[in-house]
Amino acid sequence: MFDRRRLLLSVLAAPLAIAASPSFAATAKPKYGDFGIDLAAMDTTVSPGNDFYRYVNGTWLKTTQIPPDQSRWVGFIELQNLNLERERLLLEDAASATTPGPRKMVGDYYASLMDSAARERLGMTPLQPTLARLAAISTPADLAREFAVLCRDTPPAQPGGGGRLPASPVACGITVDLNQPSRYLPALGQGGLGMPDRDYYLVDRPDYVAARTARVYALEERIARSHRTPEASRDVDKRNNKWSAAQLAAAAPGLDWPTLLSEAGFAGQPILLVSEPEAMTGVAAAARDVPMADWRDYLAYRAIRNFAAVGPKALVDEDFNFEGHVLSGTPQELADWKRACQIIDGTVGQAIGGLYLQRYFSPEARRQAVDLAARIKAAMAVRLHDAEWMSPRTKARALAKLAAVRMEIGGQEPPRSYEGLVIHRDDAAGNLTRAARFEYARNVAKLGKPVDRREWSMNPQLVNAQSNPPLVKVMVPAGILQPPFFDEHADPAVNYGGIGVVIGHELSHQFDDQGAKFDETGALANWWTPKDLASFKAATARLAAQYDAYEPLPGVHINGRLTLGENIADLAGLALAYQAYHASLNGQPAPVIDGFTGDQRFFMSFNQVYRQLQRESYLRQALATDPHSPGEWRAQEVRNVDAWYAAFDVKPGQRAYRDPKDRVRIW
Question: What is the pLDDT of residues 258-267, one digit of tens each?
């Protein structure tokens, strides 16, 4: 028999500071309106029971224009642009620093990136040694070596910040062993495509046609044929393939694997994690069969594309024309200073992140966020306890896992060190390469050492949040702890409906269709009874079917399986945040503010967060590759929540009404 009081105490005793519930103080004004909701954005001519999304956001949707340098406009991107403005101020200030340290390093890096005259004067000269080396490739060993060099010299995509597949056809990196999460393993995976996903090559869609040289395109298409779909790539069990170097060479003949592994820093490693074995087989066969001249062209193209970020304007423009305009429909490229900030984010992001935390993350914001996260975690304990479909045995394991989850707010502590990284004020191209190599070497140096569970894979200034099942933790960067997600001066209902749902979303990833496969130590291990697992899968299948039915563009539906994990998390986040909000009231009724009840403000806040405009090219790309549903359809999760119907008196016959038997409940 479970004791709810002991249950809550055990969860709240986990490593997270607890503070008193924040109260709405009228003395300080929030960013939006009088209590945190942008009432001017509403369209009150729309009935909430017919189209709640437009009831909350209709005027904003009609009157807002997407900025010309953006492919979409949503709260995440709006804040991302605000944070770039803040970074610009920090970097311009740091550019005058003379004392050695992180501040001078990022200041010098920024100064090099902003020196457009030097970039024009140098032109393609910094790239010539690389192009000459690639032009001399003549042996299988040369080719394999360059695959590894491409991994080493290309900055990694910032997790949660978007980006393409890894540049090399064989992506090399370091990962946590999914079965023994106390150790690191070298990892190999699919990569090497110039467009966002395999379907851009393999599905006949005229929108995806782009001007490419025939041989490079044909080679990328061949690589794409061996890639997994984004949906298949979500399955953590299928990614967990441990091979020896000998097994790799036997299963994927045609590539000089010993040379690649040696150049990658993996020589002598007894175990390799191979996330997509079929991609390794496909690339190895291509290495054997495709003429070396084609590979030289392909690798030169990859090198030019990597260099474009720090090259002359003509190259920057051409790169944007394909990446930004053709693929995403964006009419105008980013200003130089924005691109410079993004490059720094992607290479030494935690260095500028330390400065960001000092200036822009207040102690009060941290206190409130820590408290709210603790309350979301306590709500999850209650939801697990009350889950009627879950057996006592599975509940006990789920609660043990929940108690182990760390909720980390703000950024990595202690901050990451960049000691040893050489940055020159007059060498933008060299800085980019050295920063990429530094990061790659930092990761390879983890091999043989215990896993550092304090490490963050996100920058403090990033507008996102992340759940990491192997590390058994949730990370909420300072960058997202701003309106519309969080406002320390807003009504609590608004914060619970905004950042509360986000935190609940991330916490629930520990228990979604993939995260639930990890136990309380972070190991990939089944802790479910067969009956409980069947019940869980049945509920998630119904949610996938709901999203399969949504059609954002004529003839183009959301992929309910690709987006399943995120849709589960959105639904769970709503349930957790709503329960935590009511618990924070301590049995007292929520005040009515400007005619809106607490529950109404909660659900309005959730829909305000996901108001979104996007260009059609971007939307097509996102529907093919993004595991998140577009904002308007994320906002539809309220239709599965009984309390939303009561809050807005939604009745049968209204368009948004969903029969109770069709509402999906998981947590």
Answer: 999 999 999 9
